[in-house]
Amino acid sequence: MQKNEVILGLSSLLVCALFSSLLTLQAQSSRPEEAGADSLAIVVGSNPGLVRSFAAQELARYLERMTGQKIRAGATARHRIYIGMVPSEVGTQQAAKFRQDLAGLAADGFLIRKAGNDIVILGRCERGELYGCYALLERMGVRWFFPGPEHEVVPRRPLNWSKPLEVTESPAFPERILFYWPHSYTRFEDWIDFSAKVRLNRIAFHYTWPARDWYIN
């Protein structure tokens, strides 16, 4: 009788231990890889201009909305997105291939590449880097259907770092123009913002005299 009780007690302990292990494993598997304040950082090249700095801000803003996490700038993290630079961890041969691919693009062209656990965005100019940031967000599910924040879609989801990523865009036309002729000019800033998101580099306004100060300037 005592022997049976000991065996029963050991069996109960084993069942409890197994159940506890399964719960821990389930929690770990359901926990996104990106969880944690130091999971992602954005790193920009040295002496960034206004456009590159704005590109980093835009990328961080949308990624924070997607993941619900604070995106750090230039911090040590599990994953990093490099804008306008090739990280030193990238091998010489791979870095040379990045630069070779970039050199074959037209003005405003850009490329997005995986580099180990990180992502590299390079452009022929800083405006190309901005376009590359928007292109990366598009591949993560962000959409801009029309000017204005009410017409954009930002999904709430963790980032998938295991997916292959190789994007190259080179514009077919050097000037890509939006001709803006609305009934009201009260929201023209939204159109300027939207133009960058869809990779336009010119915007034309139709206006009749007397023009406002912002139009004259």
Q: Which word captures the global form?
A: globular
Low-pLDDT runs of 5+ residues are 1-37
Give the % helix: 40-55%
Strand order of the largest sheet: 2-1-3-5-4-8
> How many β-strand stretches?
10
CATH level-1 class of the largest domain = Alpha Beta
Distance between the termini: 97 Å
Overall number of structural domains: 3
Tell me, rounded to a whole number, the average pLDDT: 80
Main sheet properties: 6 strands, mixed
* Full CATH superfamily name of the largest domain: Chitobiase/beta-hexosaminidase domain 2-like
Oligomer: single chain
* Strand-pairing-aware structural class: alpha/beta
Q: How many helices in DSSP terms?
A: 6
Question: Can you tell me about this structure?
Answer:
- With 217 residues, this protein is of the alpha/beta class.
- It folds into three domains: 31 residues; 130 residues, Chitobiase/beta-hexosaminidase domain 2-like (Chitobiase, domain 2), CATH 3.30.379.10; 40 residues, no CATH class.
- The strands form three sheets. The protein has a six-stranded mixed beta sheet, sandwiched between helices.
- A hairpin with a 2-residue loop joins strand 4 and strand 5.
- Helix 2 runs parallel beside helix 4.
- It is globular, with a radius of gyration of 25 Å.
- The termini are far apart.
Feature tags:
globular, 217 residues, two-stranded antiparallel sheet, 18% strand, six-stranded mixed sheet, alpha/beta, Chitobiase, domain 2, disordered N terminus
